[in-house]
Design brief:
The chain is built from five helices and six strands; from the N terminus they run E-H-E-H-E-H-E-H-E-E-H. The protein is α/β, with parallel strands linked by helices.
Length: 146
């Protein structure tokens, strides 16, 4: 995947030092996605205090991510799954999304991985208007940091 700073990111290199939070979202510049990512932004200090790394992930381009990140003052990387390999691997890809039938868009979901890269928490919704509970994400990371 490519970060909003045009740098390649490999999840296998990110795990090992602490929990990793992957917050998949549908599109940059949408209200629910903005709320989802800003909630993570607001709890980032607590997550980092427990050694967690946080990443937002969507199939939008890294160029779009850069602007979306700046506009929302997000303080963690947004990753572009442009080739849809990660959303497919995690089973969170819509075959067809919405009335216009876009293909390959990521479902709104959150995964918390432990230091070994094992998924310890998974939340996925079929309803793109339903955001994840940021408190639940924090609680799940706490379990791994203890």
């Amino acid at each position: 995947m490519l970060s909003d700073e045009s740098k390649p990111v490999t999840l296998s290199k990110e795990v090992g030092q602490g929990p990793v939070v992957l917050s998949f979202y549908v599109f940059d510049f949408t209200n629910t996605c903005q709320g989802q990512l800003c909630a993570l932004r607001d709890s980032l200090g607590d997550l980092q205090a427990m050694g967690a790394k946080v990443f937002g992930v969507s199939t939008d381009s890294h160029h779009s991510h850069r602007i979306f990140k700046e506009q929302n003052r997000l303080n963690y990387p947004l990753l572009s799954d442009w080739n849809r390999t990660v959303s497919r691997a995690y089973g969170v890809q819509y075959d067809r999304f919405g009335s216009i039938g876009l293909e390959g868009v990521a479902k709104r979901s959150v995964f918390v991985l432990d230091r070994s890269g094992i998924v310890r928490y998974k939340w996925v919704t079929e309803d793109p208007k339903v955001p994840p509970d940021p408190k639940r994400v924090l609680d799940e990371v706490k379990k791994l940091a203890a």
